[in-house]
Specification:
Elements (H helix, E strand, L loop, with lengths): L8 E4 L5 H11 L11 H14 L4 E6 L2 E14 L4 E11 L8 H15 L4 E7 L3 H9 L3 E6 L2 E7 L1
The site of coenzyme A has 22 residues, from strand 4, helix 3, strand 5 and helix 4.
Pfam families: Acetyltransf_1 (PF00583)
Protein name: Putative N-acetyltransferase
Organism: Hydrogenobacter thermophilus (strain DSM 6534 / IAM 12695 / TK-6)
Length: 159
């Protein structure tokens, strides 16, 4: 097993984190602006929506007291394509300087554990068709590409 070089922790997020999360989001999506919000007000509104959807499904990765990544998941999501409630991963971002150190994997594992605790049997997400880094990352974690809508690819993992 690969040694984890970075001693980060995974914690539940709080609405007090919203401004710090917005900065992580904006820095994390540099270069991928076609798939993301770029104005701070839109990012804050989006984060508020994520907290309203499922406050228990949002987790942060912290290193030396600073948020270096987060995942926003949703255990109440009705998937039209699956025809049932699934665990949705709406957002996942890791700061560029902290990538390839297992932070993204740890965040996804945390939400999969959360979905299982909610009795869900499927995880679903949508990823930009040219976001190859994320698509490869999700494949590596066992997600499969299922179908698409415009330039979004739907990926699913059976839990
Ligand atoms: C996707 C993202 C969250 C991954 O975070 P991370 O902390 O780097 O993830 P991890 O370190 O746990 O895992 C990275 C692993 O994914 C796989 N991976 C990543 N990029 C890959 C690539 N181009 N080809 C093959 N495998 C790749 C590798 O197995 C890699 O492990 P390695 O670094 O040891 O080679 C991060 O790249 C990110 O924030 N991207 C911008 C935001 C984004 O696109 N979010 C997803 C929206 S749906």
């Amino acid at each position: 097993m690969k040694k984890q070089a970075l001693e980060f922790s995974i914690e539940k997020a709080s609405e007090k984190d919203i401004h710090e999360l917005a900065q992580v989001y904006l820095k994390g999506y540099k270069g991928l602006e076609e798939y993301s919000y770029t104005h701070i007000d839109d990012v804050i509104a989006y984060l508020n929506w994520l907290f309203r959807r499922d406050v228990a499904g949002i987790f942060v990765a912290k290193y030396e007291g600073q948020i270096i990544g987060f995942v926003a998941s949703d255990g109440n999501w009705f998937s039209k394509r699956e025809g049932k409630v699934v665990g949705a991963i709406h957002e996942l971002v890791v700061l560029p300087d902290y990538r390839s150190k297992g932070v993204g994997k740890a965040l996804v594992e945390k939400v999969i554990e959360y979905f299982k605790s909610r009795g869900l049997d499927t995880a679903e997400l949508w990823v930009g068709e040219e976001n190859y880094e994320a698509i490869n990352f999700y494949r590596w974690l066992g997600f499969e590409s299922k179908d698409r809508f415009n330039y979004w690819i739907r990926m699913v993992k059976k839990l």
